[in-house]
Structures are given as C-alpha cells and as structure tokens.
C-alpha cells in the first residue's frame, strides 16, 4: 500500500452578519479610513453582536457549512480539533461542545491554542493523526470571537481584529497529495509583545485586574510587525528551499491575514507574483485562528488538484511557521 498522506478534502466557513467598517471605527476611536487602509489593508471586519453566543457558535456554523457542502455524516468524524485563542470558557473544552452540537457524537475533541498560529499548528496535528493511520476523518476548525477580547477604545488593536470561523476536513490520501512539509517555531521571549495580561494562572482575575483593564488583548504593534515580517518570510523561504520549489512552482500563498504589508513582504521574499497571493483581509481583518480557512473557503473555486500551496502564519507567543501542501481535489 502507498504511504498515507493527509489531505484537505473539504472546506467550510462562517462569518457573522454585522459589518464593522472603518467609517464606524472613526466614530469610536481617533482613527481614519485612509490610515487603516494604507497601514493594514483592512476596510471592514465582521462582528458577532449577540452577547449570548461565544466562539463555539461561529465554529458550529462553519462546521455545519462543511458538513452540508461535503455531504458527510457527522457520525463518521473521528476527531475535532478546535484552533482558537478565544475558547468559550476556561477549562471546559470548546471542541467538546462543538462536537456534540454538530452531531459528531462518535468523535472526541480538544482545543489547540497558539494565538494566530493556532490553525497552522492544528494542520500539523491533524495531519499527524491521519498519517499515523489512527483516524480517517479529522475536522480542524479555526474560530475566534476576537470582539470578546478587544478593547474598542484602543486604536492599536480594535482596527485590526474581527470575528469568524473556518473548517477543513483532513482525510487519508494515497496519491501523495496533502501535507508535504512543515517548519513550525516558537519563541517565548516574545510573549509580552502580544497578550492578554490577566485572567490566566499567572495573573488570575481580581477586582484590581478588572479595574486596571487587563483582560483585553494588547500589543506592541511595531515590534510584532517587525518579527512577523522577518519570521514569516524566513519560514516560507526555508520551506521552498528545502523542497526545491521555485517561485514558478508555487501555485498559491495562503498567508495569515494580520496586515497586508506583512503579506506583501512575505510574497516579495518568495518572489511571487501578486495573482498567487491570496488575501481577504480587506473584508474580515485579522480573525486570528480563522484567517487561513477563511482564505481557503473564499478561493477554493480557484484550486486545482495538485496545486502547490504554501501556508504561513505569525502570532503571539511568539509562534510562527510555514506549511507546504498539495491540494487534493477540483471543486465540482
Ligand atoms: O496576527 C499577529 C498579530 N498582530 C500583528 O501582526 C500586527 C502587527 N503590527 C501591525 O500590523 C502594525 O504595527 C499596526 C497596524 C498595529 C500599527 O501600524 P504601524 O505602522 O506600526 O503604526 P505605529 O504603531 O508605528 O504608529 C504610527 C503612527 C503613530 O503616530 P505618530 O507617533 O507617528 O504621530 C501612531 O500613534 O500612527 C499612529 N496610529 C494611528 N493613527 C490612526 C496608531 N494607530 C493608529 C490608528 N489610526 N488606528
């Protein structure tokens, strides 16, 4: 029997209806449409307005979209990996709740957190389960309700983030398609540059942490930007070299959507023409764990069986990396 590789065989997505435009943000903080577009490439983002719903709602909708489109029986799903930085609640696994609510009652599931790299690292985890032969259907969901941790008085963060979810199904492939190689890294020296200060075990929630407004995401944008540009570009260059891939042989770049300038710098290092660089940042902003599957969902119609796709991400921790994957199907 041929070696088992782990291929993406279906994609689903969900974004909430409410559109938070740059114009609306102008009424909330001292910013303007032109600054946001030129510095980030973002025009609008989606926000889940319903206070009674958490990240699981977004994840369930994305998973249901995939299940419907791919016409799979949720009872056949073995494992659900929930990539998220905004779990519904601490301790109780969001993946467990999602699995039950989509009818995947034969599956087990757990959450996987590596900030904006959660989905990229989740691809590696999902692929390892498939390649081992242990499971046949692994559903990887990237979902974040970033609006639940954004301070809408902080112009350094509120202009960037949005809510959304995407899901992919990993299945065994016997033609050598799917995940080919990965280069994944972390550097804990970076943790103070992009974080939520309190609410974890180091600084548990207290009256003081609430009064001091320490429960929202904060970042030192310039520093994060600098590390993101260098590390994402380095990772992509390395994975291309290691696999003897020329810029002509790369069909698509699927990059984390944090800032258009970071994406442009990565693409430029890879020497890729613009048409190969997939972006939807202008419509969704940075949805953290959902950026990569939302790009897959938006551009799935362009992908052909055998296409060479390079994924790249950078996020808090710091965490970053690149994955080389061969697309496994033509869209019907
Ligand atoms: O997913 C991974 C997580 N995050 C990232 O990858 C984000 C990485 N960082 C970035 O994308 C960028 O650093 C930002 C978009 C956050 C900021 O862009 P920047 O070009 O690095 O701006 P800056 O922080 O250096 O600020 C430049 C100027 C400053 O004014 P002065 O000091 O030059 O007068 C800021 O006060 O722009 C000002 N500024 C703003 N102006 C209008 C900062 N934020 C805003 C704003 N609107 N929202």
Structural topology:
Layout: E1 5-14, E2 18-21, H1 22-26, H2 33-40, E3 44-47, H3 55-70, E4 79-83, H4 94-101, E5 108-112, H5 118-131, E6 138-145, H6 155-158, E7 163-173, E8 178-186, E9 194-196, H7 207-211, E10 217-219, H8 221-242, E11 252-255, H9 260-270, H10 281-284, H11 291-299, E12 308-315, E13 319-326
Parallel strand pairs: 4-5, 4-6, 11-12
Antiparallel strand pairs: 1-7, 2-3, 6-7, 8-13, 9-10, 12-13
Helix pairs in contact: 3-4, 8-9
The structure holds oxa(dethia)-CoA.
Oxa(dethia)-CoA binds at residues 31, 35, 39-40, 116, 155-156, 159, 194, 219, 221-222, 224-225, 228, 258-259, 262, 286, 314-315.
Structure commentary:
It is a single chain. It is globular, with a radius of gyration of 19 Å. The protein has 11 helices and 13 strands. Helix 3 (55-70) crosses helix 4 (94-101) and helix 8 packs parallel to helix 9 (260-270). It has 332 residues and is an alpha/beta fold. It folds into 2 domains: 5-176, 3-Layer(aba) Sandwich (Peroxisomal Thiolase, Chain A, domain 1); 179-326, Peroxisomal Thiolase, Chain A, domain 1, CATH 3.40.47.
Bound molecules: oxa(dethia)-CoA
Number of strands: 13
What oligomeric state is this?
single chain
- Strand arrangement within the widest β-sheet reads 1-7-6-4-5
Number of domains: 2
Largest sheet: 5 strands, mixed
Overall mean pLDDT: 97
CA radius of gyration is 19 Å
Kindly state the percentage of residues in helix.
25-40%
Head-to-tail CA distance between termini: 28 Å
CATH class of the largest domain: Alpha Beta
Instruction: Catalogue the unreliable spans.
Output: none
> What is the CATH topology classification name of the largest domain?
Peroxisomal Thiolase, Chain A, domain 1
The helix/strand order is EEHHEHEHEHEHEEEHEHEHHHEE
Question: Which word captures the global form?
Answer: globular
